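Data availability excerpt. The first of two example chains:
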Amino acid sequence: MPVKQCSKIWLLGLLGGCALVMASVPTFASTQSTQVDPAATKKSTTTQNPASTMTFKLKNGLQVIVEKDARAPIVVSQIWYRIGSSFELTGTTGVSHVLEHMMFKETEIFKTGQVSKLVAKYGGSENAFTGQDYTGYYQLWEKSRLPISLAIEAERMQNLKLDPKEFAKEVKVVMEERRLRTDDQPLGTAYERFNAAAYVSSPYQAPIIGWMHDLERLTLKKTKQWYKQWYMPNNATLVVVGDVEFAEVKALAEKYFGPIESKVLPQLPDYHEVPPKGIKRIVVENNVKVPTLFMGWLVPSMKTATNPAEPYALNLLTQVLDGGLSARFETELVRRKKLASSIGTNYSAVSRGDTQFFIQATPADGVSLDTLEQAILDIIDDVKQDVPSAKEMERIIAQLSAAEIFAKDSVSAKAQSIGRLAVVGIDWRKAYEGVEAYDEITPEEVQKVAQKYLKPKRLTVLNLVPFTRTTSTHTTSKDTKPTADDHESTGAEQ
């Protein structure tokens, strides 16, 4: 009997309430990955595959990464597809996220909602996520349930049925999700407009959830095409972390995914961002009482950096500015000068294209956005003029060490770190570098990335402010007539 048919009978047995039987698997020696080319990394921060981890690739191109973590009898299985919002063309935004919702619907084996019932029946948890560069699905449960995870994902990879009624229903669900998370949330709307302005040629301009007008016009035909184009083993990475044996996972992956044929992948989008030509400023009016400042500089990711040390230095720079109560922003702007009521800094190095060194700040009562912006730039200029102190660097390393310890405590967090790197084309073994990767990043290198990248020509500034009206909203004069944007906070479609 073909393997695929065996898998279907096994799954149907589970759906009918039959007992789960673990198949016996052959034993073999785990293969060790070779060390990363030292030329591709910074000095002594080369990464090596730990003894607890192995990787292999099936003949159809599916990459599998396994980490044995026997601290508890649990396992997480995550499958990452190299497809996200940045792959979408103008007019089709949101299709990746809608397809993610549809993956929980009907297949050749499962009826709509049956996967979730199956996972709950065996004490597991499940979910999915869509990003700019990827879409992922996962299950977390007791270790003996791993075969169910792989059987579910193999089935969804190849046999999804897209029912017109379920599709229409789920598009409405996504549209409501957009209203709740973006249209009715002034900060969400502002961040969406910030990205649209900050990127010129990069596909990161569009929102992950899609523009509302694109969701209204999204067709079942386009969604089916998206599924057929991108959901295939040679465009996916399977990550398994937990109390498992390498031989068991390899045999299960070959059993459930091995028979699925690879396909020819479409050409990947061009993530090249054109060189910046000058500061960009935009104002977003919305239903807010307190204004908010957004600032972002175009910077390289781990994927696009020509100097592999720069992403590490940029991450340290975020800690110098905003790494807790002792960092410069909190010390100077919030507590000493009382110019900001809150401020946060973010830089994500795991990205297929160039990304943003991003700051969001709320001014204190009576402080203008211009005053707060200048104060932020002054602190950044201080870093450009004088290298961070030894005391600052010591504090940052201690904080990173603590964060690393907490991250290692979760099998899901470890799997996510591995999967995100692998799916965007970065060496996944960097997930194991640890805080030692920062040991040879000097204060001078932190200063250098501030000087090189935090320049006005790379900067986008967005001011989120209250609506400006000189008369009552009941008037309909030319100068005060509300526009469609005036209704964004209610989610109304005009």
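And the second chain:
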Amino acid sequence: MAVTVILPGWLLLCITAQAAEFQAGIGRVIITPQTPMWMSGYAARTHPSDGLLQDLWAKALAIEDGQGGRVVIVTTDLIGLPREISQKVAARLATKHGIPRAQLVLNASHTHGGPAVWPGIRVLFDLNPDELRVVTEYAQKLTEDLVAVVSAALADLAPVRISFGHGSAGFAVNRREPVPGGMRIGVNPEGPVDPAVPVVNIATPDGRPRAVLFGYACHNTTLGGDCTKINGDYAGFAQSELEKACPSTTAMFLMLGGADQNPHPRGTVELAAQHGKSLADEVRRVLGGRLQPVRPPIRTAYEVVNLDLAPHDRAAFEAEAQGPDRFRQRRARLMLEAYDQGRPVRQVPCPVQVVRWNDDLALVALGGEVVVDYPLRLKREFGSNVIVAGYSNDVMCYIPSRRVLREGGYEAVESMIYYGQPGPFAENVEEAVISACRRLLKQTGAEPVGAFRPLPRPSQPAPTIPP
């Protein structure tokens, strides 16, 4: 598709000068399973995948600022990347390309239409030897693919300009529905949501689109456990819509802090496509508007914070192991094994990462399934030009806020069974995560609200973007 960019001469010179300050490269690889295999996300499934709705992709965006700053962002159409895979990929890339851990962001869309990513959420599965071989081989191939896609992005570096804008989508709804005696997964229109659709545009110096990185805080669960065909859910449809509209663009979906958010309505392929199209349309609208230039330098920071769990004892798991629930039995076996080895699970390591571009934009990437309270709080503290992603670098369990923890329900309690964690977090979980975010934001130069400039309102027209 031809792209027409209409710019006054002085603005073109400014954009060209700005573009020389960044180089970016893009890589992409299909990660669709080549054989039927167990899918992840729903405990109710009773058989492996039996077809294909959409290919799944891993996509990498490498950005260098010419001053020694660099970041590589990898998006994947997967339920999540467990620590075992993320650590291997990071180690391989450190050796092969000299990439420090703080410069590598690994994000998963959390589609419930993808394969099991072993050993993530392993309590869901009771695999026979052949099934275990299939998921293990997929994990090994995935590791190789992630290293290869980053290598491809680094080999593709070319001058670009980067800009940022805000959009909004409305199909996410808070799913924590109050009922007598607690919370259930349902529809709660009164619950907190984050409608923001952040859009990062990567374009050549003359304005041709190369990549667009966009996000939304909502589970990829339009399709339920009765769907056993591989698919990327609404995020997969959104990416394909954008790439069909502009074939020169690689569209990359970043899963934000939407662990307690579901698409609404949901349940059919048509609805997944509808939500994907509405999200893609909003991204295109933002790209056609006034975007804020993003400037160097790139600063990065990374740490792993240990989150305390509520107290537990061996007796509880001995009783659970004798109970009727097969998932609790599997969880209990893991916990009793840890007790037997003298290392009962008392904390959960959670990666926290910050990538910051000057005073223009910051990305906070958190491990785990992060509920919406986290992005809402961090944007209140540090401004709307902070993108807060969950599902990054390790998806080891839900990360509830203090409010969600006190309310109970699936995100706070029951989900920990399927993740093989001993039980809920201690009440200091939110402050431990927020304190780590503050440390890393300040380490990269960010300050509380006021440091980030509001979006500009230039008098000149924006570049023309194809509809």
